[in-house]
């Protein structure tokens, strides 16, 4: 739908910055330059360090890679790890806390090899470790993490092989904590540690009564899936005491949710866990480490509120509240301060990945033109619709809205019963949509918008078709209605004149995005520019580094996108540090148990049979097989 022109014609990059909320959600990693291009800033807030995303896109295309592309920015990942540790160190100094802080990254948040390697490299200065929730993740961690002062946290269900691997890691000098998630694991840990002659570092995951608000509230509370309740916790303490291994209990762990939007919930969880920690020390456990799990939120919509897509606190406030709460609680009992561990995954990785895609086409909502006067033989209700359109005003807005819907529905019934022609039905519906456009214009003038008009903008929105699969690259957008900032990366010095939703190229009506970032509420349409003939129009989805790569599926057999990693070197230059080609058609077919070679042979036999039956010539068979081979080895996404 076309956006109504405002009273002034001038449009600036500041207007684009406001309409897409860039300063609110970007944490100063992105900004719009004077040419109307969105830039990545190597140093947050430093406009002189910016590299336009359009330059990166053009560089990728010049190297022979097509859209869509997942762009990873190493500088941002490095900056996020540094920010977390410097904020905690500042809080420790400010509160005179006697312990230290060590972060770990949960591998499940983004399991890609390059990501894990970069986290270990960038985090080595701070002894930033890893969290593994399965044998495969533990093996990945052991093969990647080199820093013996970093923590390696083993969560999840554990069999004998998992525990043996963790114990051998201890023997190799890793600070590898085996966290007990269920009571039965403790006996196996004791048994295997004695069999191997290795003293374990044991942690216990506690089910706190504290529950956080937001999408993941079920992660905490008495009925959470993982962890031990208080009576089970005490039984484990008694078992370790009985076995002479209470000195092996070195860590308390809890997790009350991912993406916790309210700082009050974080404080409440830390306070309860600190009390449990005190109790374990008083029981004689060695302790020394308090693992607060994840929960540090990302402000996806930039509203800085306790809405579940946002957060009402800064990272500095988060760190101070944690350190201060633990310190005060333990000081009251004269207990030594522990090493604080957090498993911040989302807030560490989300900002560093950007999904770039081009728009292939658009379906525009423009009601068909209607005559000044209706044919004399029209039905009376069609004439009534025309009268509504000619007499539209704010005074009769709701009445006209209701009447128009009534007449349209009645005319549809008449058509089904054969009482009006197809042509008259088309004419009546064109008049109806002209009425709806007029209604929207009048609604925009109202101070208070009645509920019945909510969603009308969306009903009249254009559809912009993006070269992507929501299910592969933005699965949370579909599955849990997660909002990601989405905007054009160029033409931002021009007024966007269309309101649109975004559809992907899957054959699925759910493959669309129709919730967008807004400070006050979720927008149901996104302001976009008119497409130009023979000119690409590029959009980007931001904050997609957490979970989206791991959760993506092969809906319509659209596979992994091309991946490009860059490092901004300063002076507005960047270098490509890694390129990974996306899945070919043959790749995704093999994932779902097809044999590409067998498919090729069977198709070749059918083509040869067509030659024998004189349906095609041998030369045509060659061209057909070449097309088949090219299709097999081609990108699963749309290629110009």
Jot down its keywords.
Lyase, Ornithine Decarboxylase, Chain A, domain 1; alpha/beta; ten-stranded mixed sheet; Methane Monooxygenase Hydroxylase, Chain G, domain 1; 22 helices; TIM Barrel; eight-stranded parallel barrel; about 650 residues; 4 domains
Descriptive overview:
The chain is an alpha/beta fold and 640 residues long. The protein folds into four domains: 191 residues, Lyase, Ornithine Decarboxylase, Chain A, domain 1, CATH 2.40.37; 245 residues, Alanine racemase (TIM Barrel, Alpha-Beta Barrel); 77 residues, Methane Monooxygenase Hydroxylase, Chain G, domain 1, CATH 1.20.58.930; 39 residues, no CATH class. 40% of the residues lie in helices and 16% in strands. A hairpin with an 8-residue loop joins strand 2 and strand 3.
**How many domain regions?**
4
Instruction: Tell the overall outline.
Output: globular
Residue windows where pLDDT falls under 50 for at least 5 positions: none
Q: Helix count?
A: 22
- Using DSSP, what is the number of strands? 21
Overall mean confidence score, pLDDT: 93
Proportion of residues in helical segments: 25-40%
Strand content: 15-25%
Report the end-to-end length measured between terminal Cα atoms. Answer: 26 Å
What name does the CATH topology of the largest domain carry? TIM Barrel
Characterize the biggest β-sheet: 10 strands, mixed
Radius of gyration: 30 Å
Q: Specify the CATH class of the largest domain.
A: Alpha Beta
* CATH architectural category of the largest domain: Alpha-Beta Barrel
């Amino acid at each position: 739908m076309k956006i109504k022109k405002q009273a002034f014609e001038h449009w600036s990059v500041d207007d684009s910055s406001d309409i897409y909320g860039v300063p609110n959600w970007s944490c100063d990693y992105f900004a719009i330059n004077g040419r109307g291009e969105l830039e990545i800033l190597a140093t947050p807030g430093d406009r002189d360090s910016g590299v336009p995303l359009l330059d990166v896109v053009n560089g990728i295309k010049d190297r022979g890679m097509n859209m869509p592309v997942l762009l990873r920015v190493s500088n941002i990942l490095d900056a996020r790890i540094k920010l977390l540790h410097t904020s905690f160190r500042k809080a420790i100094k400010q509160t005179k806390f006697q312990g230290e802080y060590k972060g770990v990254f949960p591998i499940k948040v983004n399991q890609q090899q390059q990501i894990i390697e970069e986290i270990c490299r960038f985090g080595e200065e701070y002894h930033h470790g890893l969290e593994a929730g399965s044998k495969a993740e533990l093996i990945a961690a052991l093969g990647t993490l080199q820093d013996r002062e970093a923590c390696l946290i083993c969560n999840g269900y554990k069999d004998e092989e998992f525990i043996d691997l963790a114990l051998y890691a201890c023997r190799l000098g890793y600070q590898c904590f085996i966290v007990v998630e269920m009571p039965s694991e403790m006996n196996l840990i004791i048994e295997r540690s004695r069999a191997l002659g290795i003293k374990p570092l044991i942690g216990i995951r506690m089910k706190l009564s504290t529950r956080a608000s937001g999408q993941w509230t079920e992660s905490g509370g008495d009925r959470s899936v993982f962890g031990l309740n208080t009576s089970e916790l005490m039984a484990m303490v008694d078992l370790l005491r009985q076995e002479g291994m209470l000195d092996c209990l070195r860590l308390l762990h809890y997790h009350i949710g991912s993406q916790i939007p309210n700082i009050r919930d974080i404080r409440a969880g830390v306070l309860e866990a600190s009390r449990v920690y005190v109790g374990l020390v008083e029981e004689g456990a060695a302790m020394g480490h308090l693992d607060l799990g994840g929960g540090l939120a990302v402000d996806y919509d930039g509203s800085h509120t306790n809405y579940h897509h946002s957060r009402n606190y800064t990272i500095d406030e988060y760190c101070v509240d944690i350190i201060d709460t633990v310190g005060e609680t333990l000081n009251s009992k004269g207990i030594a301060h522990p090493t604080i561990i957090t498993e911040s995954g989302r807030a560490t990785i989300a900002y560093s990945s950007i999904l770039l895609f081009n728009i292939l086409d658009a379906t525009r909502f423009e009601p068909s033109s209607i005559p000044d006067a209706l044919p004399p033989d029209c039905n009376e209700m069609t004439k009534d619709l025309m009268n509504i359109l000619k007499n539209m005003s704010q005074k009769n807005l709701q009445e006209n809205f209701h009447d128009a819907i009534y007449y349209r529905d009645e005319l549809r019934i008449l058509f089904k019963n054969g009482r009006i022609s197809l042509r008259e039905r088309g004419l009546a519906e064109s008049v109806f949509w002209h009425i709806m456009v007029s209604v929207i214009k009048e609604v925009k003038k109202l101070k208070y918008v009645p509920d019945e008009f909510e969603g009308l903008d969306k009903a009249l929105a254009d559809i912009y078709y993006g070269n992507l699969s929501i299910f592969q690259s933005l699965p949370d957008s579909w599955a849990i209605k997660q909002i990601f900032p989405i905007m054009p990366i160029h033409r931002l010095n021009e007024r966007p004149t269309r309101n649109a939703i975004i559809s992907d190229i899957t054959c699925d009506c759910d493959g669309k995005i129709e919730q967008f970032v807004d400070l006050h509420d979720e927008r149901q349409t996104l302001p976009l520019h008119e497409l130009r003939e023979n000119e690409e129009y590029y959009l980007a989805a931001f904050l997609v580094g957490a979970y989206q790569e791991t959760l993506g599926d092969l809906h319509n057999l659209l596979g992994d996108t091309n991946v490009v990693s860059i490092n901004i070197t300063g002076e507005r230059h960047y270098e490509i540090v890694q390129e990974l080609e996306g899945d070919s058609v043959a790749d995704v077919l093999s994932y779902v148990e097809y044999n590409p070679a067998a498919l090729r042979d069977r198709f070749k036999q059918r083509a040869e049979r067509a030659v024998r039956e004189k349906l095609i010539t041998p030369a045509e068979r060659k061209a057909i097989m070449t097309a088949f081979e090219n299709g097999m080895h081609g990108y699963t996404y749309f290629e110009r």
